[in-house]
């Protein structure tokens, strides 16, 4: 539907799409003076919460004008309209909310709007908030600042934007976080932070961090160690050179102590992440997950990441899964015939809560095999289609355009590809489609409650 559609244009249409009908329903509810606090009993969202994901700005503005006092309302999980629009990349709706005066500092389940924009490395959303003089040092429960989000996420552009806007480089002790992220951008971020006056010795004890230079040495980030050498306070008894620091972190004594420290860190951060999910603080849960990236195996970290994605994506629909491995397996069974991507996400999430869940492990192996077969089939179809198109193009070149039987038909897509696996936070929007999380999934979990893992 065009973003310019008005109520008059919608009602005058001879053929209406599903989204047109939804638009008219929202407009009717708004114009009939529906109680602004009305919550959809089945999903726990206001009229505007339902409208945001389904529209890119057209009729949403009309509904918003009618329900303007509701723009800062939260749904049953505490999600605001502005944050929902940012998380889903609905920029037209986001801009209308900002223009109508939405509070850009209200904290929600994913921090403030600026935290969501930075965590997703969303330059459009961040710039829109900057134009309204958003607080770049906004701190949420857990002590997380936008700069910390940028460091953990490897968002160099967002980091530069925040620092240029005057972000306090000392508050969140960002150097250690940039190193822990262990991304290709870590070196660039450390250099930017040092140039901005960040303390090279600052340690975030709440996140059980090592001294930044030691953290870099453990991860063999040689260039980062070199950057920090002159800015860090020497450790007594350690040869304060690149080779000396690397040798220190490879010593038997250091490794024995570090193994104990790392095990305690993993246990504490996992527990904090689970508690954050239970308490609907999804930004803190995400930060704890990213902090564990290099302290657990790739498989375990992928499972923890999918657990976070499961909770955040369900929040788009006003839903909160039960924090139980067995209950989440039951949810996976609902998706088994509907969406393999969501089934895999659920099974990985179940194993994050209980790695010994043999049922989840068995179902995951089967689901991944099915996914691979689907991927191979899809790839073969694309190859076949490309071959047909090449053959058609060759044939069409030899036939006069006016008489070519293939003119115009071979350019149409015959099959819309779909993403089967969730790989990054940037793909969250793929989780909101024409087949959203059905109520049956939560019903299945509730019907067979299990003891939380």
From TrEMBL:
Bias-annotated ranges (Basic and acidic residues): 377-386
Signal peptide: none
InterPro entries in UniProt: Ankyrin_rpt, Ankyrin_rpt-contain_sf, Cul2-RING_E3_ligase_SR
Region Disordered, residue ranges: 374-413
Protein keywords: ANK repeat
Keyword presence, Protein transport: no
Record-linked PROSITE patterns: ANK_REP_REGION, ANK_REPEAT
Pfam families: Ank_2
Swiss-Prot/TrEMBL ANK repeat ranges: 142-174
Name of protein: Uncharacterized protein
Native organism: Oryza meridionalis
């Amino acid at each position: 539907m065009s973003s310019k559609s008005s109520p008059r244009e919608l009602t005058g249409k001879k053929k209406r799409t599903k989204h047109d009908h939804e638009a008219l329903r929202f407009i009717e509810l708004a114009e009939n003076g529906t109680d602004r606090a009305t919550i959809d009993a089945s999903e726990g969202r206001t009229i505007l919460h339902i409208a945001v994901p389904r529209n890119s700005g057209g009729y949403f503005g009309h509904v918003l004008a009618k329900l303007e006092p509701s723009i800062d309302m939260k749904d049953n999980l505490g999600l605001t309209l502005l944050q929902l629009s940012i998380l889903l990349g609905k920029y037209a709706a986001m801009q209308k909310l900002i223009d109508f005066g939405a509070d850009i500092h209200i904290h929600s389940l994913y921090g403030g709007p600026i935290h969501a924009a930075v965590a997703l490395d969303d330059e459009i959303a961040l710039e829109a908030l900057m134009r309204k003089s958003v607080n770049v040092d906004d701190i949420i429960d857990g002590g997380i600042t936008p700069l910390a989000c940028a460091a953990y996420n490897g968002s160099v552009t967002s980091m530069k934007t925040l620092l240029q806007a005057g972000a306090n480089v000392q508050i969140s002790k960002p150097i250690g976080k940039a190193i822990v992220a262990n991304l290709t951008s870590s070196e660039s971020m450390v250099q930017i932070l040092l140039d901005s006056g960040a303390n090279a010795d600052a340690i975030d004890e709440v996140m059980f961090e090592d001294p930044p230079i030691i953290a870099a040495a453990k991860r063999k980030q040689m260039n980062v160690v070199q950057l920090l050498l002159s800015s860090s306070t020497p450790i007594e008894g350690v040869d304060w050179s690149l080779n000396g620091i690397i040798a220190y972190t490879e010593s038997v004594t250091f490794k024995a102590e570090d193994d104990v420290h790392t095990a305690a860190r993993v246990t504490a951060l996992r527990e904090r992440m689970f508690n954050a999910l239970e308490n609907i603080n999804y930004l803190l849960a995400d930060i704890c997950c990213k902090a564990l990236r290099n302290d657990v195996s790739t498989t375990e970290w992928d499972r923890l990441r999918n657990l976070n994605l499961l909770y955040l994506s369900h929040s788009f629909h006003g839903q909160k899964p039960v924090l139980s491995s067995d209950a989440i397996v039951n949810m996976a069974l609902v998706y088994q015939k509907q969406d393999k991507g969501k089934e895999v996400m659920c099974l990985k999430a179940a194993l994050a809560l209980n790695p010994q869940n043999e049922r989840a492990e068995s179902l995951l192996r089967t689901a991944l095999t099915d996914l691979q077969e689907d991927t191979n089939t899809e790839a073969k179809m694309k190859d076949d289609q490309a071959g047909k198109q090449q053959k058609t193009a060759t044939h069409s070149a030899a036939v006069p355009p006016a008489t070519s039987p293939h003119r115009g038909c071979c350019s149409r897509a015959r099959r819309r590809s779909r993403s089967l696996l969730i790989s990054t936070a940037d793909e969250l929007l793929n989780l909101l489609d024409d087949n959203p999380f059905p109520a049956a999934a939560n019903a299945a979990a509730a019907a067979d409650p299990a003891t939380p893992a």
